Amino acid sequence: MNKELNHMESTGTVIQFVGYSNSGKTTLLCKLIEQFTHIGVRLGVIKHDGHDFELDQQGKDTWNFRQAGAPMVAIQSATKTAWMENHAVPLSQLISRMSEQGAELILVEGFKQESYPKIVVIRREEDIELLDKVQNILAVVSWLPLQKMSIPVFSIDQVDEIFQFIHGHRLVQKKKTKENR
């Protein structure tokens, strides 16, 4: 299990949340998003979908544009913008785009094989093997009592403590970025 921190590629701090399906990643992320938003942190959130998602609705203009062959389609209203491409964009590019738009903290759900710092979410005993399969683990969030580890272990109910841990990590990374300039 590699617990070393890799150098951040972007100006925004990146933290991945990885775990198996129905481990509680999305619910935990939503609670953390509320807390970071409350203190004014500009967030970006990226979710990996193991299936082929569809934002468009059949018969709508953007869907028709894509069906006609447009490889990129964007739609904008007074309050939202969506951008769709007919290929997967590397996580590093998505992170760069969010950083360019001012994201200070980028929370990523999924992308287990990427090398960004991770919080592993464990729901079932058989999920523990994930700790040996991913790299760059910052902490573990578990539904089960776990043995003491060399990295922080939080209960799924310790949302405030997880928030404080991530906030502290973000401030350390921010300081390192300033020192390297």
From TrEMBL:
Entry superkingdom: Bacteria
**Name of the protein:** Molybdopterin-guanine dinucleotide biosynthesis protein B
**Which molecular-function annotation in GO is an example for this chain?**
GTP binding
Q: Which GO biological-process labels does this protein carry?
A: Mo-molybdopterin cofactor biosynthetic process
- What's a Pfam family this protein contains? MobB
Question: Which intervals hold domain Molybdopterin-guanine dinucleotide biosynthesis protein B (MobB)?
Answer: 14-143
